[in-house]
Amino acid sequence: MPLDQLVQNLESALSKVPLIDPHSHIDPLKPVSKSLDDILGYHYYTELAHSAGMPQTLLAPEADPRDRVREIVKFMDRYDNTAQYAWFIDIAHTFLGLPESETRVSASDADKLFDAAQKTFAQPDWEKQVFEKTRLEKIFLTNEFDDPLTGFDTAKYVPCLRTDTLVFHFDKPETRRRLEATTGTHVHDAASLRRALAKVFLRFTQNGAKACAISLPPTFHPAPFDDEHFYEQMQFHDYHDLASGIFWLIAELCRDFRLPFDLMIGVNRKVYPKGVYQGQDLFDQRTSLIQYRDLFNAFPEVTFPVSVLTSAQNQELMAYSWIFPNVLPNGHWWYSNTPPFIRKDLTERVTAVPKTKLIGYYSDAYKLEFVKPKYGMYRRILAGVLADEFVRPGVLSETDAVALGTRLLRDNVREVFKV
Amino acid sequence: MPLDQLVQNLESALSKVPLIDPHSHIDPLKPVSKSLDDILGYHYYTELAHSAGMPQTLLAPEADPRDRVREIVKFMDRYDNTAQYAWFIDIAHTFLGLPESETRVSASDADKLFDAAQKTFAQPDWEKQVFEKTRLEKIFLTNEFDDPLTGFDTAKYVPCLRTDTLVFHFDKPETRRRLEATTGTHVHDAASLRRALAKVFLRFTQNGAKACAISLPPTFHPAPFDDEHFYEQMQFHDYHDLASGIFWLIAELCRDFRLPFDLMIGVNRKVYPKGVYQGQDLFDQRTSLIQYRDLFNAFPEVTFPVSVLTSAQNQELMAYSWIFPNVLPNGHWWYSNTPPFIRKDLTERVTAVPKTKLIGYYSDAYKLEFVKPKYGMYRRILAGVLADEFVRPGVLSETDAVALGTRLLRDNVREVFKV
Amino acid sequence: MPLDQLVQNLESALSKVPLIDPHSHIDPLKPVSKSLDDILGYHYYTELAHSAGMPQTLLAPEADPRDRVREIVKFMDRYDNTAQYAWFIDIAHTFLGLPESETRVSASDADKLFDAAQKTFAQPDWEKQVFEKTRLEKIFLTNEFDDPLTGFDTAKYVPCLRTDTLVFHFDKPETRRRLEATTGTHVHDAASLRRALAKVFLRFTQNGAKACAISLPPTFHPAPFDDEHFYEQMQFHDYHDLASGIFWLIAELCRDFRLPFDLMIGVNRKVYPKGVYQGQDLFDQRTSLIQYRDLFNAFPEVTFPVSVLTSAQNQELMAYSWIFPNVLPNGHWWYSNTPPFIRKDLTERVTAVPKTKLIGYYSDAYKLEFVKPKYGMYRRILAGVLADEFVRPGVLSETDAVALGTRLLRDNVREVFKV
Question: Is the pTM above the cut of 0.90?
Answer without folding.
Answer: yes
